[in-house]
Write a structure and sequence with these properties.
alpha/beta; Nucleotidyltransferase, domain 5; 2 domains; five-stranded mixed beta sheet; binds 5'-O-[(R)-(carboxyoxy)(hydroxy)phosphoryl]adenosine; binds zinc ion
Length: 342
């Protein structure tokens, strides 16, 4: 008999639900929240309110798309953290309610493990290439920037991470400085296509081992713009494409230097990209081209699985379920999950 799992993701500003049968994704429904756009960033209070409005319709849609009814579900999986506490609370409470009313197992998942396992999302009829263990993942999102060694579906070791901002924050901040909307990453990516990546130079940090830092490069853009606009008030408009391309290029160089070093030192040649910033077109190209040059097997997620989605949470939850992992009814969400201990 097959195992049917319902997964819920509500860690930030996307409400998502997915139904999985024996690891095969039958549905993956997402509702994003436009309400934050006019504020230039996610407002936690508005996010949790929007999750409350979205969660029942999103779950109903996921069940309908999968052709299943709630009473057929064998286990419920939810994102416990890291993320915004109010947002996580909506998914956690909903999952507990379902577990209690159907008397089925409850399984908590670390959001980052979901991103890392997004390469194992299986859909009916799909035969996506999947990394073999151990692999190294460059996990790049709005909240995290890490290099993680993944040894199996349940073992993750962070070998490097940012000591300040995440790379997604640097993209968003760049967009804000240049007067583009939120989230900024997609806008910077789009404008950079018609720009010269070598026109402007931004200083790169010197950080030991596989760690990253993005606050200095962000500040160097801020001061550079401030000084340039003093001399020429139209500086941004006249150089927008080159500014986006050059800043993006600096961020990607910083990421690539570290993942190259990690592959050289560990000898691991299975390399994956994960997280929201892995939608970046130049980062995707650079990982592919470095991979070809260095004999890596590279795995780049489809764009629809780079952002927060419940299908990746379902995959991570499925393997935890098989391993006998169960969450208790008094489980609470955690906004920061240190070293993947959940
Ligand atoms: O993983 P994600 O959806 O949410 C978090 O868990 O943080 O990542 C969101 C981040 C934002 O900072 C957004 O600007 C960035 O991913 N992003 C991009 C692109 N698309 C999304 N950054 C650069 N280029 C893109 N094409
Ligand atoms: Zn995420």
């Amino acid at each position: 008999m097959s195992t049917l799992i319902l997964a819920i993701e509500s860690s930030c500003d996307d409400t998502s639900a997915s139904v999985v049968s024996d690891g095969i994704i039958l549905s993956n429904v997402m509702a994003s929240q436009d309400v934050h756009q006019k504020y230039g960033g996610v407002i936690p209070e508005l996010a949790s309110r929007a999750h409350l409005q979205n969660i029942v319709p999103v779950v109903s849609r996921a069940l309908k798309d999968a052709g299943k009814e709630i009473k057929e579900i064998d286990a419920i999986v939810f994102t416990r953290g890291p993320g915004l506490l109010g947002s996580l609370l909506v998914g956690t409470s909903f999952a507990k309610g379902v577990a209690l009313s159907l008397n089925i197992p409850l399984i908590d998942v670390n959001h980052l493990q979901g991103h890392l396992l997004s390469h194992f999302i299986n859909e009916p009829g799909s035969n996506r290439r999947q990394p073999s263990f151990p692999f190294l993942s460059l996990l790049v999102s709005g909240g995290h920037t890490q290099i993680v060694r993944v040894d199996d579906f349940l073992s993750f070791e962070v070998i490097g991470e940012t000591i300040d901002d995440a790379v997604g924050e640097a993209f968003d901040k760049c967009a804000k400085i240049l007067g583009l909307g939120y989230p900024g990453g997609p806008a910077v990516d789009r404008l950079a296509k018609d720009g010269d990546p070598l026109k402007f130079k931004f200083s790169k940090p010197r950080i030991p081992a596989y760690n990253f830092s993005f606050s200095g490069v962000k500040t160097s853009l801020l001061y550079f713009i401030r000084d340039s606009v003093k001399d020429n008030p139209s500086f941004i408009e006249e150089n927008l494409n080159d500014l986006c391309a050059s800043f993006q290029n600096t961020l990607i160089d910083i990421l690539m230097d570290k993942i190259i070093k990690a592959t050289q030192d560990t000898g691991i040649k299975e390399v994956t990209l994960a997280g929201g910033v892995s939608a970046n077109s130049v980062l995707r190209e650079r990982v592919e081209s470095e991979g070809k040059k260095r004999g890596w097997n590279t795995y780049i997620p489809e764009n629809r699985f780079t952002t927060d989605n419940a299908a990746m949470i379902a995959v991570a939850g499925y393997y935890r379920y098989l391993n006998g992992h169960r969450a208790q009814m008094d489980t609470t969400p955690v906004s920061r999950a240190i070293n993947y201990i959940l």
